[in-house]
Write a structure and sequence with these properties.
Strand content: 25-35%
Distance between the termini: 85 Å
Number of helices: 13
Oligomer: single chain
Shape: elongated
Radius of gyration: 35 Å
Structural class: alpha+beta
């Protein structure tokens, strides 16, 4: 049945009948803190990293601190350092952030490399799927589908009606209705162009046949008007000046003709466009809102498939330039046909060469004209349901100003072979709300500042949350990228980047802020405050490991920041070996730690005290005779750094 209906459209509906088918920098939210009471960990991380001591955790936090504050050059630097560590199992989000920060400094080649890696690592992420052509197309179509009604127009008949264009207060379309010369293939009359007048209630009626100078005894269909409404382009069989011509293989092809509106209101001076040919078809013209480009479908020389979409310049004097194939971004080995360009420069067309729901589906490339002029990558989208169906869907047209849309389909439940359907372009606005909480305690954070940015980093709205810590942004555009960032005194910023869906729905986002300024004083364990892992020593070893070196540099940075601070270093072992041996081992570890801080860190020895405690202060139940894992034993092989004087 599908094959039959495709043939029907190809032949009956002039979808290439008779041989041609259808074808500033975010301001720091924290005030200056009391140097004797608070520690800003991000400053410590930067100092440690610049001194050449790096770890995965350190670089992640450091790069994020710049990324969250839109300091992208610095973010790119530290994300780059992170990538050189070749860490297994790293969160793919870091690839994305690295790619985004590289874009901001115009390093597009390197950015694309990491976006490809990002897409390969997380194939379910919409950002990666937009970048990569390897997608689950059915899921993509489901996501593109929108919830609105489509209506079978009252003007449809039991025969073929299709291909709509608005002209002033009229709807222009092709139809087989009437008693004209019949087409032998289906015993229906040849197609003519008709107009339907818009009624006060928004419906269309009073159907009349167009100017007889345009309509002939053969097929006419699919028209386009110049912006001044004074010139019409339309599709017709190769029949001109009462001469009916065929190609060398005996096929009557399609051509695009042009007519000009006379002072008397008639369409006169009909002429064939210069790139028509008896040997191939040219059909289905569409003109952009500026009147500078015409798009059409053809199987002329150079076509990639059964029919391709072409463009041609409309010169200031009304003449046409030479056709240009839109290439592989649009065309395939299948049928691409019925182009339409809306007032925003979005290119719609129908195709059976891309993955769809069945038959011809309507596709769109958003901002096509600007992207083509700038030679930027283009993203093809299936417009989804309810425009597309398992049957053939084509002839898409929309008027953004009046919110009216039309398309043609031979889906089940129609009145004829092809029916025209209408819809109201749905308003699509998203509401986003959420809460701001402490990441560790999940307590609400009243007074936090939440800022909404567009995808380019421009601040759009900002709110200060109340006692309920709830923020809300209303009427966000659909299919747009946004970023929400939360910030509060003594906390590091948190953000969420997201793309609004095509369906109107409420989005909930939770911002979790991590303490960045942490209160310190006598008795504070710097290891806990600085997030230092407590695993420093290998089994039966007292030497400082490279990973421990990074962490000790944090302690050194704090001691340099607070020159009057004194700390007590406490070293521990696990329970394996004897008490005596572990006491000696912990003392050796303690001396190694103190020696490093003094000799490498340049800290005066009289600011440090220390002792080894052996296995006397285990953190778990892994005492003598208790079977424990290596990971559990490692928890006890540690050093602590306790502030004894500020």
């Amino acid at each position: 049945m599908k094959t039959h209906k495709i043939i029907c459209i190809l032949v009956l509906s002039l979808v290439f009948s008779m041989g041609y088918s259808q074808k500033g920098k975010i301001r720091q939210a924290s005030k200056e803190y009391d140097n004797l009471a608070y520690l800003k960990t991000s400053e410590i991380l930067l100092e440690v990293a610049e001194n050449g001591f790096k770890s995965v955790d350190l670089l992640q936090k450091l790069a994020n601190s710049f990324y969250f504050n839109n300091q992208m050059e610095e973010a790119a630097k530290w994300y780059g350092e992170l990538m050189t560590m070749n860490v297994d199992g790293i969160d793919p989000e870091y690839y994305f952030r690295y790619a985004q920060s590289l874009k901001s400094i115009e390093n597009y080649t390197e950015s694309d490399k990491w976006m490809k890696k990002f897409a390969a690592e997380d194939r379910g992420d919409l950002r990666g799927r937009a970048f990569s052509s390897t997608v689950d197309y059915l899921s993509m179509i489901d996501e593109a589908s929108r919830d609105f009604e489509v209506y079978n127009l009252d003007i449809n008949t039991e025969v073929s009606d299709f291909g709509t264009t608005q002209y002033k207060n009229q709807l222009i379309f092709a139809s087989s209705r009437g008693n004209g010369k019949k087409y032998n293939w289906n015993e229906q009359p040849f197609l003519d162009l008709f107009s339907a007048e818009k009624q006060e209630d928004g419906s269309y009626g009073n159907v009349e046949k167009l100017d007889t100078e345009i309509n002939t005894k053969f097929h006419e269909s699919t028209v386009a008007f110049t912006p001044d409404d004074n010139v019409i382009y339309f599709t017709r069989n190769n029949y001109f000046k009462k001469k009916y011509k065929k190609s060398e293989d005996g096929t009557n092809r399609l051509k695009v003709f042009k007519a000009t509106l006379s002072d008397e209101g008639n369409w006169d001076d009909i002429e064939s466009v210069h790139f028509n040919s008896d040997e191939y078809s040219v059909a289905h013209p569409a003109i952009n809102v500026q009147g500078t480009k015409m798009y059409f479908a053809s199987d002329m020389l150079g076509t990639l498939g059964k029919s391709d979409i072409f463009e041609v310049d409309i010169n200031e004097d009304g003449t046409l330039g030479d056709p240009v194939n839109l290439g592989a971004s649009v065309n395939t080995e299948g049928h691409e046909t019925f182009p339409f360009i809306n007032s925003e420069g979005d290119l719609y067309f129908s195709s059976n060469g891309f993955s769809g729901l069945g038959g011809l589906d309507v596709f769109v490339i958003r901002d096509f004209e600007n992207k083509r002029e700038a030679r930027q990558p283009m993203a093809l989208e299936n417009v989804g349901r309810p425009i597309n169906s398992p049957m053939d869907d084509f002839g898409y047209y929309e008027n953004i100003g009046t919110k009216e849309g039309f398309f043609t389909s031979n889906r089940e439940g129609g009145k004829g072979d092809d029916d025209i359907y209408s819809f109201t372009i749905p308003e699509c606005a998203q509401d986003v709300e959420g809460t701001v909480k402490d990441k560790e305690t999940l307590e609400l954070l009243p007074g936090a500042i939440v800022t909404l940015f567009d995808g380019e980093g421009t601040a759009l709205q900002q709110v200060t949350v109340g006692d309920d810590a709830i923020f809300k942004f209303e009427d966000l555009a659909c299919e747009m990228e946004y970023l929400i960032r939360g910030q509060k005194d003594t906390y590091a910023s948190d953000e969420r980047r997201f793309t609004t869906p095509k369906k109107k729905q409420k989005l909930n986002i939770e911002l979790l802020l991590e303490k960045d300024e942490k209160e310190i004083g006598e008795g504070t364990d710097l290891a806990e405050t600085l997030g230092i892992p407590i695993i420093y020593f290998d089994f039966d070893k007292s030497n400082i490991r490279p990973d421990a070196e990074v962490e000790l540099q944090k302690v050194i940075a704090v001691l340099k920041k607070y020159p009057s601070m004194m700390i007590d270093v406490r070293s521990h072992t696990d329970s394996r070996a004897t008490f005596e041996y572990n006491d000696a081992l912990s003392n050796r570890r303690n001396k190694s730690t103190l020696k490093y801080i003094v000799e490498v860190g340049g800290i005066a020895a009289d600011r440090l005290t220390g002792k080894g405690y052996g296995e006397s202060q285990l953190l778990n139940e892994c005492s003598d005779g208790v079977k424990c894992s290596e990971e559990d034993h490692q928890l006890n092989r540690r050093s602590e750094f306790i502030i004894v004087k500020m």
